[in-house]
Amino acid sequence: MINWSSAPLLRVALAFILGIVAYLYLGQGWAGSAAPWAAGLVGAYLLLWLWSQRRPAPAATDAAGLLGLLAVAALGFARVQGYTESRRADHLGHFAPRIEYYRATVDEAPVVRANTFATTLRVQAVRVGGRWQAATGGIRVSLPRHETAAPVPAPRYGEMWLVQGTPELTKGPANPGEFDYRRYLQYHQVYHAQFVHSGQYRVLGQAPLSTVVAISQRAAMVLDGVFRQYVKSPPEYALGTALVLGFRDDIDAATKQAYANTGTTHIMAVSGLQVGLLFAALQWLLARVPLGGAALRRRLLTAGLGLALIWSYAFLTGLSASVLRATVMFTLVIIGQAWERQSSLFNTLSAAACGLLLYNPYLLCDVGFQLSFLAVVSIVYLQPRIGRWLDVRNYV
């Protein structure tokens, strides 16, 4: 059983998740704002908590706790509502049928296919009826690679484009039970799509939405160039960049199928495995170095070097979502170890989940996010129980 008293943040995380789920299934058609309701519940909780402290009683304490969880759920509802771009007055969807041109920035590295590039643009302005207006929204664009005699350059993160044409709403699944790619894009705040020919767009310059991400992706491309220079065999190069940097575009279909047949496709995704191995290797090395000094100083040095290492690795992989999840989790674990906080790992995972969902509540709908936390929770919960069943007398 989970010791709830040692993991107080677990209740908070579950309540926040409940609020997000409530919005996704019940609240998307609600035109009003949930923020005032959430603020009111938070205020009511604070008043009830103060009253319960002045007059301690089990009933008052329990009521304050339940009201606090309800307030957290309301905050989760309000957070995902406020994060949803389609609710904004300047969203692209209000202008889409009449758009003549739009200015947008490339928001991610392109997916390279046999005949096309695919990427996401974030719109800053649209021209409607000859007038430019500020706008927001995401557009999933595809462009042909071989439409002209000269090869079409791949889109790069941070490029600002001027695009002609009217984006269309993404289409839902054509068959029952088919993967709903439209919903997947909507969870990434992308509601429109467009096939852009080479004569329909022009690169105006560089204007990255995040300077940090732009620099990190540039660093990842430099490392990719190092792999390409020294690893001459295409299969080994493809696997190396997939395992270290998370680049999977160059892996051939036969290799992907081989990994899928053995159930090891997850190895090719950069995630907590690589981050954990890096930190474990650092701990192993530092344990064999006579650093001297007080125990606290040694722990703080290990923590500082560990945080620098894992965040540097996250930076060099382009700050991908899977690496960021693992890095945030390990950051909290490392800080707890440095201060010798014997906190429940469930509490640490709950804090990581709350932080990530506050940043982007739609991460809850990401399969990678779900599997990352489910895998760690399953290991933490099941390992002691399975360990009691096994009596291994000879590990060799």
Could you describe the 3D structure shown?
- By secondary structure, the protein is α+β, with helices and mostly antiparallel strands.
- Among the domains are: 4-87; 92-208, OB fold (Dihydrolipoamide Acetyltransferase, E2P) (Beta Barrel), CATH 2.40.50; 213-267, no CATH class.
- Helix content is 52%, strand content 14%.
- The chain has 12 helices and 9 strands.
- Strands 1, 2, 3, 4, 5, 6, 7, 8 and 9 form a 9-stranded mixed beta sheet that branches.
- Strand 2 and strand 3 (116-128) form a beta hairpin.
- Helix 1 runs parallel beside helix 11 (345-359) and helix 9 runs antiparallel to helix 10.
- It is globular.
- The mean pLDDT is 85.
Short summary:
By secondary structure, this protein is an alpha+beta fold. It has helices spanning 8-27, 35-54, 58-83, 181-187, 211-230, 234-244, 253-261, 272-287, 295-316, 321-338, 345-359, 367-389, and strands spanning 99-106, 111-112, 116-128, 131-134, 138-144, 159-164, 168-169, 190-195, 201-206.
Query: Nearest-angstrom radius of gyration?
Result: 25 Å
Task: Output the structural class.
Answer: alpha+beta
Low-pLDDT parts are none
Report the count of strand segments. Answer: 9
**How big a fraction of the residues is strand?**
5-15%
The first-level CATH class name of the domain at 92-208: Mainly Beta
CATH topology name of the domain at 92-208: OB fold (Dihydrolipoamide Acetyltransferase, E2P)
Largest sheet: 9 strands, mixed
Average pLDDT rating: 85
The H-and-E topology, N to C, reads as HHHEEEEEEEHEEHHHHHHHH
Q: Percent of residues in helical segments? A: 40-55%
| Named CATH architecture of the domain at 92-208 | Beta Barrel
Inertia-based shape: globular
The number of helices is: 12
